[in-house]
Structures are given as C-alpha cells and as structure tokens.
Write a structure and sequence with these properties.
The protein is an alpha/beta fold. The chain is about 45% helix and about 15% strand. An eight-stranded parallel β-sheet has the order 3-2-1-8-7-6-5-4. The protein is globular.
C-alpha cells in the first residue's frame, strides 16, 4: 500500500518571518497526518528553508522548489545539493511547469537533476504535464511519455522507487480550471503503465504519483479516491493555514 502524500508548493511566496509563523501554526498537523498514515510537507523558497526546517524539524517534509545538478561552480544565483543537505533538506521539486516555461528547464536538465539528487540520497519530485494546446490536440499521453522516458533515463530500478512523480496539467495550474478526477486518474494510470514498461509491475506499484492543478479542500478527496492518484502537489491552497489544514482533513 502506497502512503498518501500531501505536498505544498509555496512558489515565490512568504518572507522569512511569514514562513516562521506559518510553520509554527502547521506543526501540530504532523501528528494528525501520522495518525492517518499520510505524509505531509511543504516545498518552500530557498530563504525560507532553514527557518522552516528548524521549526518543523523531522515532523514534516521540508523540500526545495529547485536545485542545480552540479555540486559547485560559476552558476550565479543557483543552489547546490550540498547546500541543501547542509541544512538537512532531503527533497526537491524538479521540472515544475513554471521552471520549464520561464527558465528553459528541459527534460534533459531534469534528468541531470534527478540523477544528482538520487546519487545524494535525496528525493526528487519530478513534475510532468501538458499545455492546453497539447491537451486539446489529444496528445497528452504522447507528451507525458516523452517527459517520463527522458527524465528517468539511466535511473535504475531501485532508485526509481525512491522518487515521486507529480502530474500537473499546465492548463489547470492556478487557473481554477480543473482536470476531472477521471482525467487525473487516466494520466496517472498511464504514467504507471510507462513505469511498468521501463521497469516492471512490482517497481511501478511502489512509485507514488501525485496530482496537482487547482487542488482545493473541496476536491482533494475526489482526486485521492482514484486508484493511481497517491497524493497531491498543491499551490495556492497550501499558503494558508486554514486551507492547508482542511486539505489534510479532507484526505482523511
């Protein structure tokens, strides 16, 4: 049985002082999540990582929103895996659609990051998903398959079990336009099918696949009731204590 995972993505929101207050308020949720066998956490901006980690410690997952694949070098503005590990961060998003759109994040670059994170015993959360144009052209599966195959190149069977895949249709992120639970399940099931083809059934069944895209407290239960949807990667609804709390309680 795959444990459910609720992961917030703050994007470029919350100052250090705001992040501290938020972390203090949500810390009690960790015990509630554990009692229902749900993993819970937040991926936060670089400046917020250390203060949030200090408050939440190991009670909740605290992850980065991005990372470079090289350990050091002349890459102004980037943050390396050793920098994250030094403050006890063990998870990072890779290939979020906004990174792909605004920062030229290619499947190949995502692959380099995934391999580097796994090599350092960190968890990559690999984001995949299609544009509205691709969706309307009925090319979603073709597009997502390419993202999976290239992104997981040279990732072996044992390592792939450690990562998380998040399906986020770009056309539903922050737009209020939701993919139906049937669409979410269809694509997540398809992703698991690709994993079976690349590895085997036992391996594919161990990989957690999340859905993300306008997930709210009033629809999260529907999404997570689907067989192949193992959790949610949530943006806006993870920024307020009340809605983040409600997200968790509506999974239960």
């Amino acid at each position: 049985m795959r444990r459910k995972l609720l992961l917030g993505n703050w994007k470029m929101n919350k100052t250090v002082s705001e992040s501290r207050e938020f972390a203090k308020e949500i810390k009690p949720l960790a015990k509630e999540a554990r009692s229902h066998k749900i993993d819970i956490g937040v991926c936060v901006p670089y400046l917020d990582l250390e203060p949030v980690k200090k408050i939440l410690k190991n009670s909740m997952i605290v992850g980065a929103e991005n990372v470079h694949y090289l350990e050091s070098g002349a890459y102004t503005g980037e943050v390396s895996i050793p920098m994250l590990k030094d403050i006890n961060i063990s998870l990072s998003l890779v290939g979020h659609s906004e990174r792909r759109q605004y920062d030229n994040e290619t499947n190949e670059k995502c692959n380099a990051k995934i391999l580097a994170l796994l090599k350092n015993d960190m968890v990559p959360v690999y984001c995949v998903g299609e544009s509205l144009e691709t969706f309307e052209a009925n090319k979603t599966k073709e597009f997502v398959k390419e993202q999976i195959i290239v992104g997981l190149k040279d990732v072996d069977k044992e390592d792939v079990k450690k990562l998380v895949i998040a399906y986020e249709p770009i056309w539903s992120i922050g737009t209020g336009k939701n993919a139906s639970k049937e669409i979410a399940e269809d694509v997540c099931k398809f992703i698991r099918k690709i994993l079976r083809e690349l590895y085997d059934t036992k391996t594919a069944n161990k990989v957690r696949i999340l859905y993300g895209g306008s997930v709210k407290p009033n629809n999260i239960k529907d999404y997570l009731s689907e067989k192949d949807v193992d959790g949610a990667l949530v943006g806006g609804a993870s920024l307020k204590v009340d809605s983040f709390t409600e997200l968790l309680r509506n999974i239960e």
